[in-house]
Amino acid sequence: MFGVGVGVRVGGTAGGSIDAQAQAHYNRVIADGGVVPAGVSGVNGFFNAVKTIYATSDITTAISVGVDAHYLGYKLGAGSGATSGQAAQKLYSCAGSSGDVVQTTAASQPLLLAHNGASSDNYYYAPGVSGNYISTTSTYQTDDWDVEFNVKGKYSLSNGRIAGTRSTSDGTNVAIDGTGITFEYKIGVITYAASASTTNTNDVEYTVRVTRNSATGAVTFIKNGVTLTTSGSQIAGTLSSNSYAIEINGVLGGVQGFSGNINWVKFYISGSVVRYFNPATYNASTSQTQWTSTTGEVWTINTGTATTGYKGALVDRTITMFDGVDDFTQNATVLRGNVCSQYFAYKTENALPNGYAILDGASSNYSNAFTPESTNMKLYMDSSVSGLSKTLGTTLALFTATNNQGVLNTLQRNNDTQVSNAYTPALSGTGITIGKLAVASNYQKGNVNTYLSAKSADNATTRTAIYNYIRTINNNAF
User: Fold this and answer.
1) HSE (CB half, 13 Å, CA atoms) of 197?
2) How far apart are CA 296 and CA 147, in angstroms?
3) CATH assignment of 20-117+317-473?
4) Cβ atoms of residues 28 and 414 within 8 Å
5) What per-residue confidence (pLDDT) applies to 81?
6) CA–CA separation, 262 vs 109, rounded Å?
């Protein structure tokens, strides 16, 4: 479900010709030790689309930098803690190595949420932080408890509650950590906990089924098809007289949640699945906050209100997540000129009110910068706000800025009506930074999917064509 496998074919041509520059880009990434989840055909589709829209045979004449971890590739670095082994050291650019953005400091690398391409590979990334969880108002409280789940995580880093139903007085949940699997049920002030001792290794996927027989109180743990030895509290009879809504990744607001990927959770009654937390059924084009399961219940994504730290995310393509603490990537030399157009597919997570940039120059602050500020996305140029602002929103959106020095500067959200001005000061500074202000320790947070910087001031036809293409490769999420 979560990995760094290469060569997955999700777009472009199959068995047809591959654009020479697309092939060269793919070869460069692989030779450098990087990964392209979309495979060479995905790269080919990306290059062909951009070249067609800009009517050029050379990608570098149209684009100064273009990054998308899913279609253009990434290279993993050495992260720490919860991000160990899944931090993005490099994002490769379709403009070649001169456009790549890199972070060589392990602690400052953004979280890389990998995805292999098919909807069956969707998963929920759980950060193990309270307030981040999936919930449904549908209930599941049965004395013959029967739950199965598939996860891959950092088992030693949290209590690891996968799924549960609970109030402050009673309820039930299952958990997995580095040393075992637990079935916990609380009745009034008394907590019972049956468990199985087993070693669970970080970054290894496990399928676990936990059942409880109400007549005998016997709890059974089956891990990857093997029945484990059970110890602890096994009490026959009724678990609770109440029915409670289900939470995935902890109970009571994501408390003591799992850290890692939750691929699916099935709830059974008498051998039949009655509730199914299945991210494969999630559709970003219809809702980015909730979706309806094949068993009828509506699942809602909750992310809390913290302005720093990683957030729970439903992953349906490869994305990079910036934590608002120390994550960023940078290229010190690539040029975004006084005449350029930028396309930025981004989802904020509780934007800071004082307006730190999520995308900026590299040598001077607020140089052609996209800046989430409370409820708005603002465009800053030459260290000053240009007066252009669009509603930020809470879902993934494409923000388009066209800068034509002294003529017309524009800002759009999802190809809506532009706001514009003729802001005249020449832009200063070179390079590009994603995740923070250029030369200050002020970080922004959120998910970055796609970024392109074109070497021209686009017209309406080009903007719409690029919007349509970037929307397509982002699962029609905006």
Assistant:
1) 2
2) 17
3) 2.60.120.200
4) no
5) 66
6) 23
What is the reported pLDDT for 92? 98
- How far apart are the C-alpha atoms of 419 and 407, rounded to whole Å? 14
SS3 11: coil
pLDDT of the residue at 82: 66
Residues counted in the chain: 478
Compute CA distances 394 → 68, 364, 435, 473, 475, whole Å: 21, 28, 17, 20, 17
DSSP reduced 3-state for 328: coil
Q: What is the CB neighbour count within 10 angstroms for residue 8? A: 18
Integer Cα distance of 40 and 62 in angstroms:
21
Q: How far does CA 245 lie from the centroid of its chain?
A: 26
Tell me how far apart the alpha carbons of residues 284 and 395 are, in angstroms, rounded to a whole number: 10
d(CA 264, CA 276) in angstroms, rounded, equals 7
Question: 20-117+317-473 with 123-315: one CATH topology?
Answer: yes
Mean pLDDT on 146-152 = 97
Element (H, E) at 152: strand 146-153
Contacts of 410 (CB under 8 A, 6+ apart): 388, 400, 401, 402, 418, 419, 420
Three-class secondary structure of residue 291 per DSSP? strand
Q: What is the pLDDT of residues 164-216, one digit of tens each?
A: 998 878 889 999 999 999 999 888 778 899 999 999 999 999 999 999 999 99
| DSSP letters for 210-251 | EEE-TTT--EEEEETTEEPPEEE----S-S-SS--EEEESSB
| pLDDT tier for residue 406 given thresholds of 50, 70 and 90 | confident
3-state DSSP call for residue 32? coil
Residue 157 predicted with pLDDT over 90:
no
DSSP E strand boundaries for 303-435: 313-315, 319-323, 329-331, 339-347, 359-360, 369-373, 376-381, 384-391, 397-404, 408-413, 419-421, 432-434
The angle subtended at Cα 137 by Cα 115 and Cα 397, nearest 5°, is: 40
What are the backbone angles phi and psi of residue 56, rounded to the nearest 5°? -140, 155
Any idea what the Cα angle at residue 412 is, between residues 115 and 92, rounded to 5°? 35
CATH number of the structural domain 123-315: 2.60.120.200
Neighbours of 151 (CB within 10 A): 27
- How many CB atoms are closer than 10 A to CB 153? 29
Domain ranges of the chain: 20-117+317-473, 123-315
Alpha-carbon span 432 to 342, nearest angstrom = 12
Instruction: Kindly report the average pLDDT of the chain as a whole number.
Output: 91
Give the separation between CA 443 and CA 103, rounded to whole angstroms. Answer: 14
